[in-house]
Predict the structure.
Amino acid sequence: MSDEQTPAGNPEPGGSGPGAPERGGPEPAEIRFFGTTWVHHDGGYGLRRAGVAVGSLALAAAGAVVLRFAFQGLEIAAVGRFVGILVVAGFAICSALAFRRTWDGFVRRPDPAARSAADTSSQGLMLIGFIGSLLAYFCRSLVEAPGEKLHRAEYAAARERHERRRGARTGNPAAKKSRPKKRR
């Protein structure tokens, strides 16, 4: 929803303080679990950040326990030490790739033109490395709402564009035409 604007009838939580969108101006994009509270850090923003941090860390720990049970199943099946090492290395590499890709998603938008078959085929790696993605969410929520910096920059740019367009239209064009021209 970051590319779409919400209807002007939906007021932004936090009132009409500085930085609030004007009627007809750009609306801030919502961030998952935070809505638009990231704009003014109101509406329980701090509690939401703490909840997201604790929740993502708890889910990562639960995922690690599930993976441990899966690894124990491999040990019971006596598949051998080599297969066990491959499985651990595979999950570690996939988690590292998922962490990096998730972290990059918080910093910059992927170029839609650059999406390739490699991006769609890496979705399996992201699924396998879900622990890395959850850890990236945890680490980012310690600093800010995940993706807040990116959304804030996009929102500021949209507000600046709106102000420039609005500033270019100030004045009454009919009044400018009705003034007599000076003769030299």
Summary: The longest helix spans residues 45-76. The helical segments are 45-76, 81-107, 117-121, 123-128, 130-143, 148-168, 173-178. Residues 121 and 178 are 64 Å apart (CA to CA).
